[in-house]
Design a protein that fits this description.
- 34% of the residues lie in helices and 24% in strands.
- It is globular and about 55 Å long.
- It has eight helices and ten strands.
- By secondary structure, it is α/β, with parallel strands linked by helices.
- The chain has a domain at 34-45 and 52-205: Rossmann fold (3-Layer(aba) Sandwich).
Length: 251
């Protein structure tokens, strides 16, 4: 089943979900275009984790649809997830395998040949500054290097969209800056979409589209300058506060 190159990389329509009687997502609708970076901002409990779980197929929505590169998760099942790359907040690497072994194993699961796997792995290791660590076991790496391995693994099959769930949590400032720059370069270099959940406003670039999530709804959408105009605020921090705490006066 081929992907639709003209379809949005990710599209959610009227998405709702609840745990028991309490709605967690309420009629959420948005799309992410190929080559676009969309940042998902929201306080704890806003519904970000639930939304990511639905996109990854871990939960089924109460109502609404999710399409990845034109494939419907509800209609096409696991095949719809093929154009998706994922970097979870919690680590998902085999600690007793080397960097190279982890990446080769992922390529094998994706059906890539050894020659193609070696080519793609080599390119990503160079790009992420990991070439000299290819033979090291994951448990010997620091947190920043492990996160880079996870990003390399997530893009080896050349996905249409990369989901990033708090990818810089726990990293030191220089490592965070390098990783943020690397990720922001990818949509232009690789024609991939990024859907990036974070609570750190300094990770947002001026051209990123921001979705502010509050109490299970999209409270605002636009690049930072647009959100500031709409809320009458001076910066993204103030716009975020206004959208998630509408009764608060912004200084």
């Amino acid at each position: 089943m081929s992907v639709d190159d003209n379809a949005p990389a990710l599209e959610a329509r009227n998405l709702s979900f609840r745990y028991g009687a309490k709605p967690t997502l309420d009629e959420v609708t948005f799309s992410v275009k190929t080559g676009e970076t969309v940042i998902l901002l929201g306080p704890n409990g806003a519904g970000k984790t639930t939304l990511f779980s639905l996109i990854c197929g871990l939960f089924a929505p109460r109502s609404g649809t999710i399409e990845i590169a034109g494939r419907s998760i509800g209609r096409d099942g696991a095949a719809a997830l093929a154009p998706l790359g994922i970097v979870f907040q919690s680590q998902a690497l085999d600690m007793d395998l080397s960097v190279l072994q982890n990446l080769r194993y992922f390529c094998a699961l994706r059906g890539l040949s050894r020659a193609e796997s070696n080519l793609r792995i080599g390119q990503e290791l160079e790009r992420l500054g990991l070439a000299e660590r290819a033979g090291q076991k994951i448990r010997a790496l620091n947190g920043g290097h492990r996160r880079r391995v996870e990003i390399a693994r997530a893009v080896l099959h050349k996905p249409k969209i990369l989901l990033l769930d708090e990818p810089t949590v726990g990293l030191d400032i220089p490592t965070r800056k390098d990783l943020i720059a690397n990720l922001h370069a990818r949509p232009g270099d690789d024609n991939i979409a990024l859907f990036w959940a974070t609570h750190l406003i300094d990770e947002v670039a001026e051209t990123d589209r921001v979705l502010v999530m509050h109490e299970g709804r999209i409270a605002g959408s636009g690049i930072p300058a647009e959100l500031c105009r709409e809320t009458g605020t001076q910066n993204l921090d103030q716009a975020y506060d206004h959208l998630t705490n509408p009764l608060r006066e912004v200084a």
